[in-house]
Amino acid sequence: MSMTDILIVEDDSVIAQGLAYALEGEGWQTALAATGTVARQMISERIFDLILLDVTLPDDTGYELCKLIKSKSDTPIIFLTACDDEVNVVMGLDMGADDYVTKPFRIRELVSRIKTVLRRTSGHKYQDMMSIGDVTVNLAQAKVYKDQQEVLLTALEYRLLLTLILNRGQVMSRNQLLESIWDVSGDFVNDNTLTVYMKRLREKLEDVPASPKLIKTVRGIGYILQ
Q: Is residue 57 predicted with pLDDT exceeding 80?
């Protein structure tokens, strides 16, 4: 079973480091983001099981980040807030947050809240949504979106993308990719066919297909999804 991966978005380094230490003591894996900019980048590159989100950040607001996250996935969010007035709490929950904890808080209380949210959202749809930059794949519906606009892919193109996204960060050889798309095509699939379909996939998903940033070529081996 893969380790639970939690993103801590908190600009106070003392609080962030303390949270990371405590949560890792529970057997969870953590990543830290001190600004909204860093958090946005990390969220676009990696799938998290839960996000602890400070409401106030130096360059962003937790509310804006929450809206962004929930527009792309159902990743559970717990707000960390120094303000417990009803308006702010309701605003956060209305935006899709799963819970909130008011500072200062006891670590045991936070851990308990995290466990409750993880239990409640286990197997939730957020596991069927994956994002790579401005591209989002809805695995449950087999649909792909770029900048929130649906991109129409053929069965072969989708299978190719699915293989890359499920092996994200790993170099996939051309043979591995050929094997993954073989059973969705009635036609003979060879190395040249793979090159053609990769080109079409990049034309649909990359901002500059000739200089791809999502699907990189590893010369002499195959491809990797960044």
A: yes
